[in-house]
């Protein structure tokens, strides 16, 4: 697509250059569809984004023919997810029996994943990725969305398109401008993300809940630990008022790290990043000329780290359903609604499971262990079940033709 024209156009304008947007852009362009992806930032470098590449996503990359090249990028692998229950290590999810090419989660900075997918898409002549491109509003004619108004590198531009797809996350400007109704399910907790430098004699932990309490999360990121500390909803200001030192002492109580080590690594509140947990989904994902997928359609809890991979499966399903009608000029609202019907059950089921786990985690601990803990311990098939649900999801989406 030439961007020298007064009013550039594309068959599909994707708002948001995240995992769903870039994967969808690649799959559509691969089918010969003119695609423009608008990413409001200058690059993909953001800390503490969803960095888990699940077996379902690795399977898609394998089918696209890029897996060996992709796994050359620096990453860590987790064949199982662990947690501590009453001081005893427990396997929460086991991926070893999945019917996939890769039976592990790959931990990789999201910017590496996005750069990889965008580099593959850039090889296709009908794919355009524009950075510093912020959407300001939708273009509507007779109740049908016909494109977007955006500011690109400081210049106001109009982009005409047959279809606008919102992949711009939980604070989506697309769904806001389209007036889409959101169902909110709330969440009792937020998460604070921290970095703790790794030492040579640290144990070889994989992803999971570590420490004497279950509300401390650790992810092996190579040269550092990405740590998450669960707090009550909207309680960060109260923690700040008490001061940084008491906060670091709280972390020491629930983590496997010594206080002195934490004091060396956490020296400023700027090193503490807040993730506001939200669980919500749109009542209707589509209107004439517009569709939302991924977090723009359904914000997920970080439980299980499934948000990115659910969004990518949305992208695959979307490409499978709309590619043909986009190409032959017969795209209608019914095709967009078909995407929602296809992805409603896995979205609902995943969110319901997250809500159930979240509520179970808020119940007061009992001695002897509560029913949930005993259930996890005594049923040996549970890690394999959770491995399936986390690793693949409730539906398995495969790009057509592969």
UniProtKB/TrEMBL annotation:
Matches recorded under InterPro entries: FAD-bd, FAD/NAD-bd_sf, PheA/TfdB_FAD_monoxygenase
Enzyme Commission code: 1.14.13.50
Keyword Oxidoreductase: yes
Gene transcribed to yield this protein: pcpB
Keyword terms, alphabetized: Monooxygenase, Oxidoreductase
Single Gene Ontology MF annotation: pentachlorophenol monooxygenase activity
PANTHER family in UniProt: 3-(3-HYDROXY-PHENYL)PROPIONATE/3-HYDROXYCINNAMIC ACID HYDROXYLASE (PTHR43476), FAD-DEPENDENT MONOOXYGENASE (PTHR43476:SF5)
Matches recorded under SUPFAM superfamilies: FAD/NAD(P)-binding domain (SSF51905)
Signal peptide bounds: none
Top-level taxon: Bacteria
Domain FAD-binding: 12-343
Top-level EC class as recorded in UniProt: oxidoreductase
Identification of the protein by name: Pentachlorophenol 4-monooxygenase
């Amino acid at each position: 697509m030439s961007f020298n024209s007064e009013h550039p156009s594309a068959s599909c304008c994707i708002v948001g250059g995240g995992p769903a947007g870039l994967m969808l852009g690649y799959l559509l362009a691969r089918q010969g569809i003119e695609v423009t992806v608008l990413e409001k930032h200058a690059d993909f470098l953001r800390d503490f984004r969803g960095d888990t590449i699940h077996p379902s996503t690795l399977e898609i990359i394998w089918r696209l023919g890029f897996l060996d090249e992709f796994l050359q990028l620096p990453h860590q692998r987790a064949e199982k997810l662990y947690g501590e229950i009453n001081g005893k290590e427990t396997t929460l999810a086991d991926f070893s029996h999945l019917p996939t090419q890769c039976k592990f989660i790959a931990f990789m900075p999201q910017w590496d994943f996005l750069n990889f997918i965008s580099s593959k898409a850039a090889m296709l002549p009908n794919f355009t990725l524009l950075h510093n491109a912020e959407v300001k509003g939708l273009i509507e004619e007779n109740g049908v969305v016909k494109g977007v108004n955006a500011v690109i590198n400081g210049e106001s531009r109009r982009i005409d398109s047959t279809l606008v797809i919102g992949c711009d996350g939980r604070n989506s400007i697309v769904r806001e401008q389209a007036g889409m109704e959101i169902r909110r399910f709330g969440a009792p907790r937020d998460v604070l993300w921290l970095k703790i430098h790794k030492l040579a004699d640290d144990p070889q932990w994989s992803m999971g809940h570590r420490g004497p309490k279950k509300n401390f999360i650790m992810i092996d990121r190579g040269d550092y630990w990405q740590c998450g500390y669960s707090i009550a909803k909207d309680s960060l200001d109260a923690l700040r008022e008490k001061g940084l030192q008491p906060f670091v002492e709280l972390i020491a109580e629930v983590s496997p790290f010594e206080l002195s080590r934490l004091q060396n690594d956490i020296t400023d509140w700027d090193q503490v990043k807040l993730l506001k947990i939200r669980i919500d989904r749109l009542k209707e994902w589509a209107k004439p000329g517009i569709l939302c997928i991924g977090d723009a359609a359904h914000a997920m809890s970080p439980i299980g780290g499934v948000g990115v991979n659910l969004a990518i499966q949305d992208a695959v399903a979307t490409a499978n359903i709309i590619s043909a009608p986009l190409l032959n000029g017969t795209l209608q609202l019914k095709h967009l609604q078909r995407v929602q019907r296809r992805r409603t059950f896995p979205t609902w089921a995943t969110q319901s499971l997250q809500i159930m786990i979240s509520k179970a985690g808020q119940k007061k601990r009992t001695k002897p262990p509560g029913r949930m803990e005993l259930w996890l311990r005594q049923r040996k098939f549970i890690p394999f079940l959770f491995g399936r649900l986390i690793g693949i999801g409730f539906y398995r989406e495969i790009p057509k033709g592969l």
